[in-house]
Records
---
Amino acid sequence: MASKDGVVEMPESETEVTGEVHGQAMGPGGGLLACFGHPDDETFGSGGTLARCAAQGIRVDLVCATRGEAGEISDPALATQETLAKVREEELRCACRTLGVSRLHLLGYRDSGMAGTSDNHHPNAFCRADPAEVVGRLVALIRSFRPAVVLTFEPHGGYGHPDHMAIHRFASEAFKISGDAHRYPEYPGPYQPARLYYSAIPRGRILAMIEYAAKAGIDLGFGTIPVSEIGIPDEEITTEVSLASYAETKRQAMLCHRTQMGPISPFSQLPPEALEQFLSQESFIRAFPPFPPGSPREEWLFP
Ligand SMILES: [Zn+2]
C-alpha cells in the first residue's frame, strides 16, 4: 500500500490466522500453498477445495498479493475507498477462518484494478511489481512451508484481471525454480513441490449459469467482458472435484466478503440450483506433472 504522500511502504510479511499450525507440511501428501491476487479469489474459485484440504488435515496456507483496494464496494455503508483495504483484509481473515486456512501471507502490493484503468499505474500496483522480488518471496515461502501442492490461477486468471495473470506467472515461476539450489540461495533448503494446479472455471459452467439466470430474468452482469473471454474451454480441465459436503462452508466464506457480496452481486442473484452447482464443483488444470492426454479427469489434487 502507499501512504498518502505517495511513499510506498515495505510489503508486509505473513500473519497467522488460525491457532492450529502444525509446522511444515511433510512433503508429498501434505500441504497446499494457494496463491491468489485479491481477497475473495481464494473462495470463489477454490474455497471448497481449501475447506476439504483443511478438514482432511492437509495444512493450507494462502498467499494474497493485494487487499483488493481498487475493487467496487457493494454497499457504501460497509467501507469507503480509504478504508477498503483494511475492511477487505478483515473479510479475508473471516474467509480464512471459515475455510480452515492455517496461515495468511499478505504480500502487501496494491490492487492493480481492471486492465486499462488508472489503478494500473499506481507505483505499488501488483502488476508493476519487480518479478524477481515477488518470485523470491514465493520461493522463500515454498522452501519454508514445503507444500506438496501449489495452486494458483490459470494463465488468463478467469477473465484477464492483471493481478490474476501476474500471480499466475509469479507462482508458476516460483514452483519451477524452488528446487534449484542456485536460485535464490539466500533462502536455504531447495524444495520442489510435487504438483502445480491452476484454478479454472470451465466456460460451459459459466454459460449454464448465465442461461439459468436469464431464465429467472437476472442479468449476471459480466459487464463489458465478452463471455468468450471468461473461463477456459471445458476440454482443458483435468481435475473436477465434487464438494457437495463443503458447499455450505464455501457459502459462509463467500458471505465473509461482504463488500463484494452485496445484493447486486451476481452470486447473490443466482437461482438456488445454479448456486448449488457453482458451490459443489470446482475445476482445475494440472500443470505439473503433465496430465496424460486423453486420460479420465482426476477427482482430487492429491495422489
Ligand atoms: Zn481477484
---
Amino acid sequence: MPSPWSVEKQEQLRELAKDQSLSNGHIADLLGMTRNAVAGKLYRWKIFRSRPVDPNKPKKPRKPKNFFAELGVCKTPGLPVDPTLLPPTEPAREYAVSLMDLRHKHCRYPVEDNMFCGSKRVRGAYCDYHAERCYQPPRPPRYV
Ligand SMILES: [Zn+2]
C-alpha cells in the first residue's frame, strides 16, 4: 500500500508546521489528512510544536488551596473547620500511668517502659488517638 504522504504533501507539511498559529487539525484539513496522521508525521520528524494560544481567551481562575479540603475535613474553603472531624491528637505523656495505677478508664497503649498512655478510654481499650492507630476498618471481601 503506497504511503498517503507524497513528497509534495511532506514539503507542504514542513512549511505549514513552521506557522505556530495553525493547529495540527487545521493543517490536516489543508492537506486532506487526519490530525493523527499529521501529529504522527511531525513526531517522527521530531518537530515539536507548541499549542496555539489565543491571547483573547480569558484565563481560568485558580482554585485557592485549602489544607483541610485536601484532608477531606472541610469541603468549602474559608469555612470554619469542625474540630470533631480533625484527626485526634497524640495525648500528652504526663497522663502516662504505670501498670499498678492502670484503671478500667485508662487507655492501655504502651508508651514507655512499663508505662501506659493513661488517657480516657474511648474505643475498645484505647483513647481516640491510639484506637485510630491500632484498629483498622474491615476490608471489603475479596471474591475470586
Ligand atoms: Zn492512648
